[in-house]
Amino acid sequence: MLNVAIQYKDVFDRLAKRYSEYETVPSENEWMESKEICKHLEVFYEVTNCFLVPCTQLQLFIFPKYVKLALIGWSDSSASHLIKKMATSMLPKFNKYWNVVNEVMVVGIVLDPRYKIELMDYFYPQIYGDGSDSEIEKIKSFFRDMVTEYDSKMKEKQKEKEIASSSLSQSQNSSEVIVVGKKEA
Prior knowledge:
Elements: H1 2-7, H2 9-18, H3 28-52, H4 57-76, H5 81-111, H6 118-128, H7 132-181
């Protein structure tokens, strides 16, 4: 909407000149801020489009990281005060929601035979900086826990099968004894 409003900047000015009741024309400074905001919000537009159209696991993994890197850059850069303030307030919210989803997305990437764990090794230092080793270890620990859980469930199922097989063979042996013990008439 903001992009469309910027395209009609001249129309707002003419509207204010033609109708005296129309008093809410953005100033030149506000138009400049709007252009800067639109330029920065383009990242979110790209990510939103990724979720609206079919995209690869890699894209789903990279775009949130791309947004995080953009927010970090905006909050530390020479951007306007408004952009810094916007990025600083968005970053904690982004971390709160995307850190939960992160593990699930990484599982998809790591299990994808095209990417494996190398992709995580490449992106995490860029995203987490000095904390990347601990984040990578969290993901590796997550995978170890998944494998351990899977292994224990498989062992449990195997025991259940053995018990069922054992009880079935016992019941078959019991019925054979009864049949063998019957007198023929």
